[in-house]
Design brief:
It comes from Sarocladium strictum (Black bundle disease fungus). This is FAD-binding domain-containing protein. The protein is of the alpha/beta class. It has helices at about 10-20, 45-55, 60-65, 105-115, 160-165, 240-250, 255-265, 290-295, 305-320, 325-345, 350-355, 360-375, 380-385, and strands spanning about 1-5, 25-30, 40-45, 70-75, 80-85, 100-105, 120-125, 125-130, 135-140, 145-150, 150-155, 175-185, 195-200, 205-210, 215-225, 270-275, 285, 285-290. The strands form four sheets. A seven-stranded mixed beta sheet has the order 5-4-13-14-15-12-16, sandwiched between helices. Strand 13 and strand 14 form a beta hairpin. Helix 2 (about 45-55) crosses helix 9. The longest helix is centred in the last third of the chain and has 19 residues, at about 325-345. It starts with a strand and ends in a 21-residue tail after the last helix. The relative contact order is 0.18. The model has no long low-confidence stretch (mean pLDDT about 95).
Length: about 400
């Protein structure tokens, strides 16, 4: 088939890698002018690890891993109340820190290097509209050009324009959580270690610091604000976004002043509402959605990157099983993947909000709970005797994909 993929992040190139192995002609169109190899720290978990093994990507991923040894809870004086180390035994479940932590930009570059010889990349261009007649998809691009394809894959993130184009008007695909996040890079200082630190401040505020190389650390502000008007800030200018976060976190304690100062010079800024994407169908005719465009589980799940790779593997696998019947392949893709996605989207947001209290006494209580739980090594026991596979769902085996692991 002649396939067009919208989105040059992780999910799009991942499925492209498999489709070209099956003999398809693949083009990736990316609206940014160059490879968008930026972003914060991401990880792989559960069935996503199996997927990248079968795709033959694991050796390359091991070369780009970030050395994060674990996660700690700290107070305003930097005192550690509890630490959970990463489970790198190869047995049991991953903890707050995965064995496979990496920077999004490094993973994007790895996927690009693995696909650039066989996949056509077009930068600075986007799909503005499309029509389909059951046999082909006629695509119109932002530069006025048109092209016809056999399959259009929307892998263009949680704000997907492809998804918006085939959904009914005024449909809201998002589950709004009342949570918001901003992250950016700051210069690393001597006290920044390879243990991730999380600090809670009254007013439903949380700050996180993690370090990914010898010169930089990542700063995260997470805010609980149930007011729908707070969502609009993420559509404002970068200057307005930064002002919003400064005002909301001014005086929050710990290293807040350092992180706010770092906002001014960062080259890597991101501000977004934390949402899930839930829609009734991921495909329509010869158009199909993948990754966050189809089923963003939210950063709180820790499963976004895993969903992208598992989804890419299942989509390519189902296309390989039914090469002459696209309707059957896309329906089977959704039927096969849905149970796994349903599991990854079971995020206990009520519990998450309890971990972002409004008062100082509630924060002190959480710190003491963290100290007791970690002193008794409860997280270690849970990881050791838990299954890594999410929901007991097994990644299907597709002989046509020829396991590369």
């Amino acid at each position: 088939m002649k396939v067009l993929i919208c989105g040059g992040g992780c999910a799009g190139p991942a499925v492209a890698l498999l489709l070209v192995r099956l003999g398809h002609q693949v083009t990736i169109v990316e609206r940014f002018d160059s490879l968008r190899a930026s972003g914060a720290q991401i990880d792989l978990r559960a069935q996503g690890i199996t997927a990248v093994k079968r795709m033959g990507l694991l050796p390359g991923i091991r070369k780009i891993l970030v050395d994060e040894a674990g996660a700690a809870q700290v107070d305003g004086h930097g005192r550690v109340w509890g630490t959970v180390l990463a489970n790198k035994s190869g047995k049991g479940a991953q903890g707050p820190t995965s064995e496979y932590e990496m920077m999004r930009g490094d993973l994007v570059r790895l996927l690009y290097d693995e696909t650039k010889q066989d996949v056509e990349y077009i930068f600075g261009k986007s799909v503005t509209s499309f029509d389909q007649n059951g046999k082909k998809v006629d695509v119109r691009f932002s530069d006025g050009s048109r092209e016809t394809y056999d399959l259009l894959v929307g892998a263009d993130g949680q704000g997907s324009r492809i998804r918006k184009a085939f959904m009914p008007d005024n449909t809201d695909p998002y589950v709004h959580t009342g949570l918001h996040v901003a992250y950016w890079f700051v210069p690393r200082i001597k006290s920044d270690t390879n243990i991730r630190e999380t600090y809670r401040s009254p007013g439903g505020r949380q700050i996180m610091r993690r370090s990914h190389n010898p010169t930089e650390s990542q700063a995260y502000f997470i805010l609980m604000d149930q007011d729908p008007s707070a969502r609009s800030i993420h559509r404002a200018s970068e200057k307005e976004q930064k002002e919003f976060w400064k005002q909301r976190f001014q005086g929050a304690g710990w290293q807040t002043d350092r992180f706010i100062q770092g906002m001014e010079t960062t080259d890597n800024w991101y501000s977004a509402e934390i949402v899930q994407v839930r829609i009734d169908s991921w495909h329509q005719g010869r158009v199909v959605l993948l990754g966050d465009a189809a089923c963003c589980p939210s950063p709180m799940s820790g499963m976004g990157t895993t969903n992208a790779f598992v989804g890419a593997y299942v989509l390519a696998g189902e296309l390989s099983k039914s090469p002459d019947d696209l309707d059957v392949a896309l329906k089977s893709y959704e039927d096969t993947l849905r149970p796994f996605i349903d599991e990854t989207q079971k995020v206990p947001f009520r519990f998450v909000k309890l971990l972002m209290p409004q008062t100082s006494w509630a924060i002190k209580l959480l710190n003491w709970i963290s100290w007791v739980v970690c002193s008794l090594k409860v997280p270690n026991l849970i990881m050791r005797f838990s299954s890594e596979d999410k929901g007991g769902w097994s990644l299907p085996v597709y002989p046509e994909l020829k396991d590369q692991g």
